[in-house]
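INTERNAL AUDIT FORM
Audit reference: QA-55
Scope: verify that the stored structure record matches its stored sequence.
Auditor: D.O.
Record contents follow.
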Amino acid sequence: MKDYKSLRIIFMGTPEFAVASLDALVKAGCNIVGVITAPDKPAGRGMKMNESAVKKYAVEHSLNILQPEKLKNPEFLEQLKALNADLQIVVAFRMLPEVVWNMPPLGTVNLHGSLLPQYRGAAPINWAVINGEKETGVTTFKLKHEIDTGDILLQESFPIEENETAGEVHDKMKEIGAVLLVKTVEGLADGSIEETPQNAESITHNAWHSAFSIQHSALKHAPKIFTETCKIDFTKTTEEVHNLIRGLSPFPGAFTSLDGKTLKIYRSKKELTGRDDAPGLNPDVAKTVQAASSVPTILTDGKTFLKFACADGYVHVTELQLEGKKKMNIEDFLRGFRF
């Protein structure tokens, strides 16, 4: 049994999501002996060297920083070994080779944005929202060979509200995850955490009620998001289209086309008609813009609303961005757009 503050910890992460966890560990008094993050990259029109969010934080707090191009580089491995870490923590980083994750005596802990074993993969937040989940959470677990399959340490669940975007879930999750990570470090240090294998027949963990006793046959996955994933299919239900829009907002953004240009939709609301026939034939709206059959029916009054017909109603667009324009709300968009 050790005091968690005596543990020598290496932190690995890159984006803003990881900063919340690193900050929580620093504020809890953890001994961060090294921070591993992505190398600086040129970005923007001037191709100025851009530092990761984690590096910026580490510089501000005078933490030791390593930025390896390759994680199997012998020089980097020697530097890592010389830090003599008891524990490594990974939050939104990249895949680690075994020679790295198996180095410290307490192993390497990862913070994952789902209630494992559900939503293993690169985009757990996006897919939970796209699939209309009412609840998600965060998991700390020990890394092993196969991605996101290591023994579970701790979990914390929280609700996903009906109209929340993936971005909003992300912002809640990074704070909840940061707190859980500190608890995990404390529990590993004092020996109070019982590791739970994911290959058990079913898993019921401390944050899970009986509904989360998940058989492996029911597992949902969270693969990387590709362009084709983001294209809106308006033959689907309003629920499915609405969930896709919020599940891809603010990045990479669900899209369709308008007047031959790409239209990204970031926020929407549902309108169910309760009709089986094409909802775009509703005669009560002020104006109907109907293009070729391959293009969805669009209805607007030209001032306050723009909605797309779906299988069982409409999806109202409330925030959008037309190719070549800035992101704006629907009223501002309609004020300057002519069909």
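Auditor finding: record pair retrieved intact. The first helix runs from residue 16 to 27.
Action required: none
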